[in-house]
Amino acid sequence: MIKRSEYKTRGMNLDKNSEIKTYILEQVKKATLDPQIAAKLLKGISSNGVSNNTDIAVIGLEAKFSNAENKEAFWELLIDNKQSIRPIPDGRYHDVKAAFPESEKKDYFEAGYLDEIDKFDNTLFRLSPQESKMMNPKQRIFLETAYSALEDAGYSGQRVHGSKTGVFVGVDHSGDCKYSYISAIKEADFLATVGNSTSILASRISYILNLKGPSMVIDTACSSSLVSIFTACTALNNHDCDLAIAGGINIFEMPLNDQMLMDIEIQDTKFRVFDEYSKGTAWGEGAGAVILKPLSQALKDHDQIYAVIKGNSINNDGSSNGITAPDQQAQTDLIINAWKKANIDPEQVSYIETHGTGTLLGDPIEIKGITRAFRKYSQSSQFCGIGTIKPNIGHCVGASGIASFIKVVLAIKNRKIPATINFESPNPYINFINSPIYIVNKNKIWDNKKIVAGISSFGFSGTNCHLVLEEAPKNSLTQYSEERMTDDILALSAYSEESLKTLIQNYYYFLVENKDISVYDFAYSNNVGRNQWKVRKAFWFTCRKDLLDQLKASIENKQIKTVFNQIAQDFEAGQGLNWNNHYYKKSVHMISLPTYPFKRYRYWHNMNTQNLIDDGEITLMGKVSGNYTVLELSLIHI
Question: Distance from CA of residue 22 to its chain's centroid?
């Protein structure tokens, strides 16, 4: 029964609802609002005046996996159908051997290893050498990855400082208890406790960047990082945050063979999934982060949009055949619930990135779960492709979900599905012929009229997660009736001269290779979306060729004659400029640019950080550096 007081509230909401609809229609009539965007807004308004639109835009990302240092290299590895599972790299082996001197190289398992986990640009984040050395590599690597993702979205520096930005990090701690980084630290230093604390993995990002939204670490085993995205979407829709960093990381700091895991590991070099010869898993390392924002706000702010999260679902197996055993019915229910929340026709789903256990009995359970979900809506056969990233980079445990997610987002952006490698002969327990699905075992052009995809991640904890993604709205880069630009400034800055030179070089080659992008979108994305550091260089330009000539001259240390520009001069003099005012009512949009070139200082548990200070490599603690004072210790509150 509805209480009398609720009648008044509902009436007020209905009146407000009507006003909003009238306003939207008036803007369309005046040609100040795109009709397609207006249609989406009207559709998202419910009868009680509250928006039902829960679509979440992916506006930035970064990936760092084996043989792939960034998102561009990650996509290249996938589309070239390469495998990066290998023996431990020599540098990594020597570092670990220092902690376990009796070990030999054969004592370390093969995996999708990162080349190095000992390098970190602590100066950029105002952290001392000693604190950096004591930090777990997971903290260091994810901090840099999250920062790069924010830059990619155009939300670094003052643009997020003090904002309601949430941080959600998925990580599986099951492998940390025996051979971990902290186990090799011999110094009695409280910084080691902080640097290896589970909660600090997320909170350090919030602390350094002054982010005020929720900050948490999520551990549901293998599904951790996809659950972190689910949690971030929930927080955004609940208005607990306005922007969210979500992702995950997995690092094997001390990757000695563990007899307990050998039963599920493959014994040859090929990781196969859904195949007759699937024999188990191979491990992988990596980190990934995405920047999420409500779609309606992303469109309003002219953000770049990689893809849209339409719906999500999470559940648990409950009492299955065993606490670590998968449950087919739970997986079916999970997918159906995600489809319902996404409000889509399941026959529109043309690809699902599967969890892909790589076991002869585990793979058929997942296929049955997908098949039964589709069969509730369609009897068609082989209309949805499936695949998995694990044969490329290994099973990245807590980071496996974010790896799958970024793969699908990039596939949507590029309208191409990378092949699932090492697939030769179908698993005899899977009936693909009469199934709604088929294996994408060759790169496939994604030519569907409307791209809709799913991603599954299942934890051996029993917690399962599925997300439904859709391509970005075709009108997301609609040119509004705003003033077009005829000249602009590219204002570059870095923490050091060396990093600035590298950035200029990276920007030059990016512009040369991407001839189709607007040079004004390029400048806008840099000026608005990047931090303003102490070492600065500004370029005033009137066209693409003008800017390229100036960048090339700077790389070659040549002088080039330009017309004087006061804003450029003010920027180089160290003034903080309001770029939002500069671009007010200008027709520009955020695009993806090369991210900050981190300096590579080495930090490992057994090194003497004092040598770095004595050699003048690192700024002395307690000294003012640029606009920041580097503190010796953070305040502690327990």
Answer: 38
**591 and 151 Cβ atoms separated by less than 8 Å:** no
Give the chain's residues under pLDDT 50. Answer: 1-14, 46-51, 478-481, 614-616, 619-638
231: number of Cβ within 10 Å = 21
Could you tell me the pTM of the whole model?
Answer: 0.87
Which residues are known catalytic residues? 222, 355, 395
Site of tokens 């110094």: 187
CA distance 543 to 429: 61
- What separation in angstroms does the CA of 485 have from each of 99, 301, 421, 521? 59, 18, 46, 10
Element (H, E) at 27: helix 4-29
Residues 345 and 210: their CA atoms lie apart, in Å, by: 42
Sign of the alpha-carbon dihedral angle for 127, 219, 291, 242: negative
pLDDT of residue 269: 65
Place of tokens 């550091």: 533
Coil, strand or helix at 619: coil
**Dihedral angle at the C-alpha atoms of 12, 17, 18, 19, nearest 10 degrees?**
90
Contacts (Cβ under 8 Å, ≥6 apart) of 204: 139, 143
| pLDDT of res. 239 | 97
Q: How many helices (H) and strands (E) does the chain have?
A: 21, 21
Could you report the per-residue pLDDT of 335-372, keeping only the tens digit for each? 999 999 999 999 999 999 999 988 877 899 999 999 99
Query: What would the two tokens of residue 382 be?
Result: 């082989």
